[in-house]
Structure formats: C-alpha cells, structure tokens
Write a structure and sequence with these properties.
By secondary structure, the protein is α/β, with parallel strands linked by helices. The N and C termini lie far apart (53 Å). β6 (107-110), α4 and β7 (144-148) form a beta-alpha-beta unit. It has an eight-stranded mixed sheet, sandwiched between helices. Strands 13-14-15-16 form a four-stranded parallel sheet, sandwiched between helices. It is built from eight helices and 16 strands. α3 (90-99) runs parallel beside α7 (292-304). Helices cover 26% and strands 20% of the residues. The chain has helices spanning 28-33, 59-73, 90-99, 123-134, 239-250, 276-282, 292-304, 309-317; strands at 3-8, 15-18, 21-24, 43-48, 80-84, 107-110, 144-148, 151-154, 159-160, 169-170, 178-181, 184-187, 209-211, 227-231, 255-259, 285-286.
Length: 326
C-alpha cells in the first residue's frame, strides 16, 4: 500500500459556516474522516500544519511548507505528498513548490470550491483524488500538479479562471496533464518541470507587478528586487513603462515582460516606443507562457536562491521566452 503524506494548511476545504460566512475550522483528523474509501487508496500520514486562508499565505509560509515537503519526501517510506490549501493562490503556491528541488516523488496540491457547510461540498472527493494521484509513481517526474474536479494540471500553466465554478482550474496553454477518478490516474500528456538550483532561505522582495491599462502611468514606491510587467497583447506598453524599466535592467535587476492576456506569450515584433521589440533589445526577460503571477514567483524565489539574470532567463526560455543575446 503506498504511503502518502498529506499537509493540511486550511482553505475553503477546511471551512464551515460561522456567523456571516465561512471560517477555517476542520483540522486534519476531521477532514480525513470525511473521505470515504481513503484507506483503499493509500496509507495516509497527516501533517496538521495550520488553518490559514490561502489569501493570507506569505512567501515565508510557502517556503516553510516547501521545507516540510522536502524533509518528508526524503524519507524512503513516503511515496508522495498532498498539500491541502485554499484555492485563491494555488496557481502561485503550486508553482513555487514546483521550482524547488524536491525529491522526485508525486506532489499534488488540492482544495475545494465549496465549504463543508455548503451543498455540493467537493472537499472529500477532491482529497481522495489527490491522494490517488500522489500514490501514482508515474507522476513522480512530472513536478508539482494541481488535482481539482477530476482533472490534473501542471503547476507551470494552471490558472484559476472562475471565482466559484468547480472546474475553475484550467491550463490555457498546454492543456490538462491528466484525469483522476475512482482511485485511478489517466495521463494525457507529460511535462518536464524546471527547478531552481537550491531552496532559497527567503524570497527576494518586493517584486511588483505593473500591469498595462488604458492611459495608466507606471510607478514604483521603492527599489525592487525584481519587476514584472504585464504588457498588453504580445508585449506592448506605453513608452513610460520601458523608460521606468531601463535603469533597473542596466543595474542587473531582473525585469520580466509577460502579457496580461489569459494565454499566449510575448514576442518581439513591434518596434514603436514601448513595443515588444524595444523591450527585447533593452534586455528584458520574456516570460514565455508564464503569466505575471508565476513570473513574480520565479523572480522572488530565483533571486532569493541566488540565481542570476541569465539563469532566470534560461528558465523562462523553457517556457518559450528568454532574452536577447548579450
């Protein structure tokens, strides 16, 4: 029987109605007891980390959970791990753990779209499916995945696309990795995760996201550790965005250009002031298919781990990005 560690961190899946709304309530034991047939899927080792709404999570806590995952997965008797959390920031936390050099065993992130007090509570089924995915050795080299609504998505592409729908998580660029139901995993494609060379002790902050909007003016409150620019279309901005970024690029601060579009990637091709070709020639890192949220995670953890601008660019190159040769 596979042995799967399950790290419980809180989120809607652990909430019940109290007063005006849902609040974190269910600890590990209560949640496990709500999942029928779990003993037939794997031998579960619970780790009761906390009851934190996902929107409250910090980089420090995400790295703490990452260290828990690393230490737990290093034990030979553990075959995989599940992180139970709120869905609000799964697309960021899952990618953060995906970047860490964890042991090559399945890591599955899961939550719920309904609390335990609501009709249609999806927590038990999602958790059972996540444990089944973590028990499948075929996912051991696929990096961190998200298992929700019977689907498996790679952490590098997964997006939360709807506020309340069960099937909110989608992979708009590459498509879902697989399906999971009734304790069985069906893989539809494979991926190669990209790891940082080491686990950072701390994230490098701040890494602001400046998103292009009609007639907006970019501002920075203080010197950043890195910058992410969510450009319009294929990588275009008003000239002021590029002029703000040029001194940072010259100083060796990683500046990543991505797109505010829900899918696709920035590409050189527009030579007007602030156009994508000017960003390329200025030395910005193009994110590839990483969106602004994931690009920010990469920069914060990458710089925190001591990665150079060149190393960050090489990671983005695996997603179809990179930067102009020096």
């Amino acid at each position: 029987m596979p042995r799967v560690a399950v790290v419980f961190t809180g989120g809607t899946i652990a909430m019940r109605q109290s007063g005006a709304g849902n609040v974190p309530t269910l600890r590990a034991e209560a949640m496990l007891q709500s999942v029928p047939g779990l003993d037939d899927v794997a031998d579960v080792e619970p780790i009761d980390w906390g009851l934190v709404p996902a929107s409250h999570l910090t980089f420090a806590q995400v790295l703490e959970i990452g260290r828990v995952l690393g230490e737990t997965l290093a034990r030979p008797e553990i075959d995989g791990a599940v992180v139970v959390q709120g869905t609000d920031v799964i697309e960021e936390t899952s990618f953060a753990w995906d970047l860490l050099p964890l042991p090559a065993k399945p890591v599955v992130v899961v939550g719920a779209m309904r609390s335990a007090s609501q009709e249609g509570y999806d927590g038990p089924e999602n958790l059972r499916n996540a444990v089944a995915a973590a028990a499948d050795p075929a996912l051991g080299d696929q990096g961190v995945v998200v298992a929700m609504a019977g689907e498996i998505h790679g952490a590098d592409d997964v997006r939360k696309t709807h506020t309340h729908a069960y099937a909110t998580f989608q992979s708009p660029n590459s498509g879902r990795l697989g399906l999971v139901a009734d304790g069985h995993v069906t893989q539809l494609r494979r991926r190669e995760p990209v790891r940082l060379p080491r686990v950072p002790r701390d994230a490098a902050l701040p890494v602001p996201i400046l998103s292009v909007a009609l007639d907006a003016q970019p501002e920075l409150e203080r010197a950043p550790a890195g910058l992410v620019v969510a450009a319009a279309g294929g990588g275009n901005t008003p000239p002021a965005y590029l002029e703000l970024a040029r001194p940072l690029i010259a100083a060796g601060v990683p500046v990543v250009l991505t797109t505010r579009c829900p899918s696709g990637r920035p590409l050189p091709g527009y030579a007007f002031p602030g156009g994508s070709s000017e960003w390329w020639e200025a030395g910005a890192i193009f994110s590839g298919t990483l969106d602004a949220l994931k690009a920010r995670v990469l920069v914060a953890l990458g710089v925190g781990a001591g990665a150079s601008v060149g190393e960050l660019s090489a990671i983005c190159a695996t997603f179809g990005g990179g930067r102009a040769p020096d």
